[in-house]
Each structure stands twice: as C-alpha cells, then as structure tokens.
Amino acid sequence: MRRWLLACVGIGLALGAGARARAEEDLDSVLGGFEHQEPAPAAADAGASDERIWDLSGSVELSGSVNYRSHHSDTGTDYAGLQRLRNRANLQLDVNLPAEWKLRAEGWAFYDAAYAINGRGDYTGAVRREYEWDAQVGEAWVAGALGEHVDLAVGRQVVAWGRSETLRVLDVLNPLDNREPGRVDLEDIRLPVSMVNLKGYAGDWSAALMAIPEIRFDQNPVVGSDFFPGAVDLPERKPHSFQDTEVAGAINGIFSGWDVSFHGAWFWNDLPRPDGAVVPTRLVHDRLWMVGSGGNYTRGPWLLKTELAYLDGLGFFGTHDKSRFDALVGAEYYGIADTTFIAEVVERHLFDYERAVRRAPNYTREDAQEIALRLSRDFWNDTLHATLVGIVLGWDARDGSIARFDLDYDVLDALTVGVGLLLYQRGDLPPLDAWGDNDRVIFNVKWSF
Predict the structure, then answer these.
(1) Torsion-angle region of 275 (φ positive above 0: left; ψ -120 to 50: alpha; else: beta)
(2) In this structure, are residues 302 and 24 in contact, taking their beta carbons and an 8 Å threshold?
(3) d(CA 48, CA 65)
(4) Distance CA 71, CA 124 (A)
(5) CA 387 – CA 139 distance, rounded (Å)
(6) How far, in Å, CA of 44 to CA of 38, rounded?
(7) CB of 101 closer than 8 Å to CB of 144
(8) Is the Cα torsion angle 349, 227, 86, 91 positive or negative in sign?
(9) Domain spanning 5-37+54-335: which CATH class is it, in words?
C-alpha cells in the first residue's frame, strides 16, 4: 500500500476550502472551544410574547462529474463519461434548551444513480459500498454554560484549529471525507467526532480541553476507484473507540488586530501506513504527539497568518519512527471590492531521514512543500460567484498539481446551480503519478430550506 494517502488528503482539503468573508471574521473563528453556529432566533415584533425554540433546516442537492478523458482504474473499470450523479439530502435541527443551552442534531444521506446507469457489475464491491449510497449522523451535541466563565459541549462536533483555508498543519482533530479528492467543499469534508469539550474564559484569553473517545479516520478512495493505486488493499488494524481515547487542549488569546494560540494533542494518525516484518501485510495507525502554535495579524485589507507544529511518532515501513516539523505562512487580501485572494505555503521537514523513507511503499521526501492559491470574485449583486483554486506539490510541481474552476449562480435565495472544471497534472510520487487522466467536468444544483 503506497503512502499516497497523505498527499491525497492534503489535495482534497486544499481544493475544497472556502474563503472567509472578511478578515475580522477570522479572528472570531480561530479556535472557538467547540465550532458551531448559534441557531438564529425567530423573528418577532415588539408585541410578540413567544419565541421559537427550535429551527429545522436542510437542503437537497444533485451533484455530478463527467470524466472527459478515457481511463480505467487498476481493477479495469472504465471511468470515462458519467462518473457521479449523486442525490443528497441534509437535515439539521437546532433547539434552544432551558438555561440558554443549545442542542443540534444533523444527518445526511445520498444515493448515486451513476452506478445503476453505468452498470453496477462493472464496479468492485468496495466502490459500490462507499460511493453508491451512504448515510451518516453529522454533528449531534448539547452545549451550554456551566458558569459565567465556563462552557461545555458534549457530543459529535467539529473543532477547526487551523488558520489555513486550504492546508492542514494544526487542524488534526477531525478526519476528512476524501473519497473524491478535490470535489467536496471544506464545510462538507470534515467528519465530526464525539468528544467532551470544556472551555474556560479569562479576559482576552480562553482555554479548551477535549477528550475524544470516538475514533474515526479519513474516508479515502477504495479498491476499484480511479483514485486508488493498485488492485488489492491490505487489511487495516484500527484502534477502538473508548479504549484508545484521544486528548487535546489549546490556549487562545484574541486581541485588537491579532491573535495567538497554543495547541497540544495526543491522537491517532488518520492516515494508515504499511506495516510488516519483510513485506507490507497490513495497515496500521500511529499514535502521535503534536505541539504547535498559530497566529493571525490584520492590517488594513490584509490578513497575515502562520501555523507551526511539531509531530512525533510518525511510522514508516522498514525503519523506525520519526518526527516532523511543519510550518505554514499565508496571506489573505480583501482590498478589491467583491474579491478575495489567498496564498498559503507549507514546508514539512522530516528529521532523521533515511533512503528507505523515499522508496516504496513510503514515498515520502525529507522536505515536502505545498503551495495553495485561491482567487474568488462575486458579480451581479453577489449572485454569480467565480472561484479559481490551485495547489502545487513541490516548489517546481515535481509531485504534481491540481487546478479547479467553479462558477456558481444563485437563481433564487434558496436555489444555486454551478459548473466547474477539475484538472490533475501528473507528478513523480503518488498519488498524482496516476491521476493525470482523471480530469472532469463537475456540476451541481442545490436547494436549501
């Protein structure tokens, strides 16, 4: 099993990220103890005596992909033409509980008709199980104040630590749904995990402590997908929920025009690696330590940001565990009306490097770079949205690159249609050494209620 998963997840997140509306919102959204939106209070006039205590919202969406270049998976499936015709429904319930507590419960389900249209027998069982239909519980939590300076949230949550719009350094707590890399937006790609999340406040500072008993891992391409290298997968050994709990904590300070945070986590690597005495016989997940820090600084139309992280316990086939240092710098510019430009660069340095780490099945460089650029602009009174996203692996794109162009139009307040183009350029290392023919046209229609 190749170590293509690391780049796969980075690419999926980079292409799926959404830009912040303005620099000030970044300062408010950094860390948070538990990331959620408060349910909007029901509109009421001055004479109203009742307030709505619950809100039900959701959406239905049709999304598709058409591969215009002929290619096959390593199991022989023809992936030319229609590749995705997914019908998805999302439902979310927000409830205002007594004593100003909040409850959220959400879930989603999809069915992809492309497999019935193309012939289900042409696909592997793993592909049909992962891509033809699925249903999951999303965020499901109860949250509120234990006192004037203490909040508590219990249940499935998303906690985004990172400042980056596109690349992961500090953002290690939630796994990703990365089954079709580059196709899914960031707001849909993080998978919530059950945790106990305690947060305290003191002036400009806050501290969060989390225990995460539910162990979930990234959902990645499977055998038979045109994004999966090879025709056979290795069995995977996973840690158990409640028996192998993750723990994490953070301290965050928000000030006028800038913020800073410090993070620590003892967690399981979402990305499995090959293991075995002589040849790879299984996939395992490493238990990692991470300590890091991040910061934002705003000046005029600019938002400058950085993230630093040191990780220990990274395993590789054929050699001992190693540590790595990741550093991110980025800038966002909002000085042009209705336009946002974001540039981010990550350098990942692996300590105690050996030749075995570069060879199969590890395929990891001593120094790896990821460069992400995003340009978005709104037209026609904020009804037409154009977005161009690109990511380059390596300073000279030696490990490949991806570009995506999206054009979305708000037909009505609740109805959006969109088209796009997703392009892959081959690189020297997995996964992009095998994705060069996976280019596709993408489209979607979404109605929200």
Answers:
(1) beta
(2) no
(3) 49
(4) 16
(5) 28
(6) 17
(7) yes
(8) negative
(9) mainly beta
Residue type, 277: A
Token pair 């340009």 is at which residue? Answer: 375
pLDDT of residue 185: 63
Instruction: Check residue 392 and give its pLDDT.
Output: 96
- Give me the pLDDT at residue 170, please: 97
Rounded CA-CA distance 49/298 in Å is: 42
Chain centroid, CA 7 distance in Å: 13
Which of 361, 34, 320, 380 is closest to 173 using CA atoms? 34
Q: Is 343 exposed, middle or buried (0-12, 13-18, 19+ CB in 10 A)?
A: middle
pLDDT of residue 161: 94
Q: Which residues of the chain have pLDDT under 50?
A: 1-7, 9-49
| Spatial separation of the C-alpha atoms in residues 317 and 275, rounded to whole Å | 6
User: Under 8 Å CB-to-CB from 363, ≥6 apart: which residues?
Assistant: 2, 3, 4, 429, 430
pLDDT of residue 52: 87
The helix/strand/coil state of 236 is strand
* Sequence-ordered list of residues with C-beta below 8 angstroms from that of 267, at least 6 positions apart, any chain: 172, 173, 212, 246, 247, 248, 287, 288, 290
Quick one: three-class SS letters along 300-358?
CCEEEEEEEEEEEEEEECCEEEEEEEEEEEEEEECCCCCEEEEEEEEEEEECCCCHHHH
Tell which residue, 314, 266, 305, 309, has the closest CA to residue 291: 309
* pLDDT number for residue 183: 77
Which pTM value belongs to this model?
0.88
Closest-CA residue to 11 (of 309, 438, 446): 438
Please state, in angstroms and rounded to a whole number, the distance separating the CA atoms of residues 444 and 419: 7
